[in-house]
Design brief:
The structure holds two protein chains of two kinds. Chain A contains no helices and eleven strands. Chain A is mostly beta strands. Chain A is globular, with a radius of gyration of 14 Å. In chain A, 36% of the residues are buried. The radius of gyration of chain B is 14 Å and the shape is globular. By secondary structure, chain B is mainly beta. In chain B, a hairpin with a 4-residue loop joins β7 and β8. In chain B, the strands form two sheets. In chain B, strands 2, 4, 5, 9, 10 and 11 form a six-stranded mixed β-sheet that branches. In chain B, strands 1-3-8-7-6 form a five-stranded antiparallel β-sheet, with no helix packed on it. Chain B is built from one helix and eleven strands; from the N terminus they run βββββββββαββ. Classes of the chains: A mainly beta, B mainly beta. Chains A and B meet through β4, β5, β9 and β10 of A and β4, β5, β9 and β10 of B.
Chain lengths: 115, 115
Amino acid sequence: NAGVTQTPKFQVLKTGQSMTLQCAQDMNHEYMSWYRQDPGMGLRLIHYSVGAGITDQGEVPNGYNVSRSTTEDFPLRLLSAAPSQTSVYFCASNPGQVTFNYGYTFGSGTRLTVV
Amino acid sequence: DQQVKQNSPSLSVQEGRISILNCDYTNSMFDYFLWYKKYPAEGPTFLISISSIKDKNEDGRFTVFLNKSAKHLSLHIVPSQPGDSAVYFCAASAFGSSNTGKLIFGQGTTLQVKP
């Protein structure tokens, strides 16, 4: 049981390049989300999904696209990378039925640098 | 507009003493609150949660208190241990009312527990 798997772990991009951050979970979770972590800003929600075929914008969606064609996968696409997108990106998943002592499970993160 | 705020960027306590981490929120629709712990180079891990129908939840050394009228919650760690040194994030959601799966985080508080 791998949980939430993010690839790659590290990436350097040039300004204007595009790339996709991969996220996969093997827990059959309905909910998945993408966050970015920046110093002093905490974790900010980029996009989230409550099931295959359903996505919605979070707090900071500009410059990012997502799709959810399967329950397992939730890729995050950077269309034209900018230095402001230098950050650590986390993917997370949740069963979709919140119980009292459960929360989102996070991946280990992708550290992205845009030069 | 920051809906979840952790106004103390850092906290330092002595081993064995109590650590109190605070969190404020502005959205009255939030009905589910979680605390996460994060070590460097790792993803956040779920620590404890509380729903808005409760005012307290305990799990071992960790207790979360919720004051709905003040829109304030706190995490108490007793006794604090050096291994508790990490960044703690408060998060909130309107799962019960909207079932969106949208989880909003605060900026985080870095806790240092000194031996």
